[in-house]
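Repro:
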Amino acid sequence: MSERVATGANVLVIDDETSILESLRILLRNEGFTPHVAHGGRQGLEQIRSLAPDIVLTDVRMPNVDGIEILSAVRAADPATPVILMTAQATLQSAVQAVNEGAFYYIQKPFRNDDLVAILRRAAEHRRLRVENQSLKQEIRRRDTTSTARPVGKSRSWLEVLRLAETVAPTESTVLIQGESGTGKEVIARYIHQLSGRAEGPFQSINCGALPESLLESELFGHVKGSFTGAVRDKQGLFTAAAGGTFFLDEIGETTPATQVKLLRVLQHREVIPVGATEPLPIDTRLIAATNRDLEDAMRRSTFRQDLYYRLNVIALHLPPLRERPDDVPLLVETFLQRLAATRGGPEKTLTDAAMEAVRAYAWPGNVRELENALERAWILTPGVKIDAGALPERVTSPVPSRLLDERSAPNPTLDAVERAYILWVLNAEGGNKTRAAESLGIDPSTLHRKLSRFGTEG
């Protein structure tokens, strides 16, 4: 190991024998280290807090505070700091404990000075590499954050959404994203997160319509051991898991009144109570919610709480459907085809003029998600680099005019009637395939099943 590695490294030596401290101080200074000494474990703890050393060299057996406690304190303060333990009474058990606790090395007294210096130099190099690695990871995260790509689109309505998202991103305000299924609500939520001060924190998400109420509450708030059958251990909820980051609640309009009450408490008090617990836990997460429902209409029908709506609707983003941004279709096509080439490891493919004409003429009731799925299908079915119209789904190339409501429908149908007609229309367009229909609608298959049951039809 080169002399350069050791030069200048701050080494804190902790021992309860003054003579050992003095001899090690002289040795380390002569070898190019910057030594600091602490007489006993208590003084060592104080030095750890104030000095933040590069390496800690400590005796194991000391009164009041021993070397294992010193090791734990260093690991808690900075896991990258190597700790070397010294002892005159080495045993296999103590060595194993030291390694399990995270010691860099375990050396027995008396030792040769050359051996100790070699260990210290390896520890200094280990520390340098860990610090460089950590700095590199932070730089990568910083670059990823600062180079966040804007969601694709150039239409005026889409650019207005992006500008508002970029304005609210640096704040801590709760955001409610509204729009039809497949319009890109999670894409915008992630964009806001990446531009926020919480970008280095986690981004947690959950689809509220995909889980039954009991399981949803456990996922959101966590639970304690024994709170219900199968709760064999404590479980952290997603609100807690998103600490320091962002929590995205998709399809919040699907939640039950009981869950809405608990969500309201979270927003009001910034705390959660795990299922089966009695004490609240504070949370530190930004909430972004999304829905494809008309929540104001849901309030009028008493299926969504008014107080929760106003808590969520601090900043509202309304995403336009794809049929209202036709100029964005070619850009999205290009983006998705490039992404498919990158992820599937093949050549870049393009649409023929006929295929592009069909794509631009289609209404895309499933919005951007439906477009992406159709292009993936076409990619798979096309062996060459030119995707013709024949590789696209039949509903895209030969759309069948269909009345969403028949002549017997009321002049002003209810929202439920329109929703029922639309779902059945999409289901019919997918040839009765419920899985594909759910994908086009942008909802979970279980949610589609519940809706069809509510309509009194098997679809």
